[in-house]
Automatic annotation (TrEMBL):
The lineage of its organism: unclassified sequences, metagenomes, ecological metagenomes. SUPFAM superfamilies: Porins. This is PorV/PorQ family protein.
Length: 199
């Protein structure tokens, strides 16, 4: 007996697939850069989201749930606890290959502070558009601590952690100088078969 108005499995599947394709289409059109500032991903707070880790770029936003190298300072400070040794990471990018826009990133992590894990990082975006030059520097201190760790394993495979970033942004340009502070928090839960993160 078929109920009146009920959709069969095939029609429900097609409706679901159409809704997913529609949602993805909206997502792609909403992300299209409309101006130069959109390309540089300048957020409302003035902070830029330029590449700081090649691995994180390849993983997209999924790196927030992994965050197990020097990129954790930028993407999710709670992931600093997964690093097992001191780590230095750097990246340099000549945007567009013209020598006009350059971005640098330097990060150092010390996971053995005795009271959690800590890291410092510096990111610079500079423009040499003659006769004008401007720099945007972002200094960051990151700290992470365990919320929960499985005491039966010593390999840090299952845990929950939290972390904070304290950021200082300084921008210099021919029109004036500006600076500001920011604080953000991150969380990471890692299980045997899944990992979840938020920043």
């Amino acid at each position: 007996i078929k109920r009146h108005g009920a959709l069969d499995k095939g029609k429900r599947w097609k409706l679901f697939l159409a809704a997913v394709i529609f949602a993805l289409g909206l997502q792609l059109t909403a992300k299209a850069p409309l101006s130069a500032s959109d390309y540089l991903h300048i957020t409302d707070s003035g902070f830029t989201n330029l590449p700081t880790s090649v691995r994180a770029m390849g993983m997209g936003q999924a790196f927030v749930a992994i965050a197990d190298d020097y990129g954790a300072c930028y993407f999710n400070p709670a992931g600093l606890l997964q690093v097992t040794h001191k780590e230095l990471g750097t990246i340099y990018t000549d945007l567009y290959g013209l020598g006009l826009l350059k971005q640098s990133f330097l990060s150092f992590i010390d996971p053995t502070t005795g009271m959690g894990a800590g890291g410092i990082s510096w990111s610079r975006l500079s423009a040499a558009l003659e006769p004008e030059k401007w720099n945007c520097d972002l200094y960051s201190y990151s700290y992470a601590q365990f919320l929960f760790q499985d005491k039966l394993t010593t390999s840090r495979k299952t845990f929950s952690s939290w972390g904070v970033n304290i950021k200082y942004l300084k921008e210099t340009s021919p029109w004036g100088n500006a600076s500001g502070y920011s604080l953000d928090a991150g969380f990471l839960t890692r299980g045997e078969k899944f990992s979840w993160g938020a920043n």
